[in-house]
Amino acid sequence: MDDHPLVRDQLRAVVQSEADLNICGEAEDGYHALGIIKSAKLELAILDLTLRGTPGGLDLIKEIHLRYPKLFILVVSMHDESLYAERAIHAGARGYITKQEATRKILQAIRQVLSGEIYLSEKLAAKVLSKMAGGREAHAGLFIEALTDRELQVFKLIGHGRPTRQIADELHLDMKTIETHRSRIKLKLGIKDAAELLQQAILWVHRGDSD
């Protein structure tokens, strides 16, 4: 499931070129993705983190994993692997690969996840193993990784210029909850006021760490 037709076309061509793989459906938003999963007998759902409507991204992975725990999920995304891959795995995905990877890597990821294994790049796998061995440095609250999934969502929307009310509407939350998230983001990132929060969020988005 991807909200960009061109990306879906390319992925479809890759998958359909393999005799042992078959596409059962496509969707451009989380709502339709859930409908396809409910009606079709799937072994694997390939998701992007950026989908129109709700649920989207990490929330969709959590929803699918909750409803269909036996369904494998592979994320194919433009998002920065170092920031989003671990979040996707924790949410219930079994693999994460960026759209820039070669075709053979995407097919490798699909087959590896279908075989019951977790697919991660060598770089990310090393990072995860380092954490398991206790080798991760303690993060002072200045790093973006300190944010929860929801706080990261809010931070990204701030960076895209969304006002608090619009963010609340998009995430189906009340304004008080969004204000609480804003306060926690400022605290974790060492940001003094709303102006600096907006500036840092815009810089993060346009630096390429978000979509």
Features:
211 residues; mainly alpha; Rossmann fold; Arc Repressor Mutant, subunit A; 2 domains; 3-stranded parallel sheet; 7% strand
Q: In words, what does this structure look like?
A:
The chain has 211 residues and is mostly helical. It folds into 2 domains: 5-132, 3-Layer(aba) Sandwich (Rossmann fold), CATH 3.40.50; 144-209, Winged helix-like DNA-binding domain superfamily/Winged helix DNA-binding domain (Arc Repressor Mutant, subunit A), CATH 1.10.10.10. The protein has helices at 5-16, 30-39, 57-67, 81-91, 103-114, 122-132, 149-159, 164-171, 175-189, 194-209; strands at residues 44-47, 72-77, 95-98. The protein has a 3-stranded parallel beta sheet, sandwiched between helices. Helix 3 links the parallel strand 1 and strand 2 (72-77).
Briefly summarize what is shown.
With 211 residues, this protein is mainly alpha-helical.
Mean pLDDT: 83
**How far apart are the termini?**
16 Å
Overall SS class: mainly alpha
Proportion in β-strands: 5-15%
Name the CATH superfamily assignment of the largest domain: Response regulator
- Largest sheet at a glance? 3 strands, parallel
Would you spell out the secondary-structure blueprint of this structure?
Elements: H1 5-16, H2 30-39, E1 44-47, H3 57-67, E2 72-77, H4 81-91, E3 95-98, H5 103-114, H6 122-132, H7 149-159, H8 164-171, H9 175-189, H10 194-209
Parallel strand pairs: 1-2, 2-3
Helix pairs in contact: 7-9, 7-10, 8-9
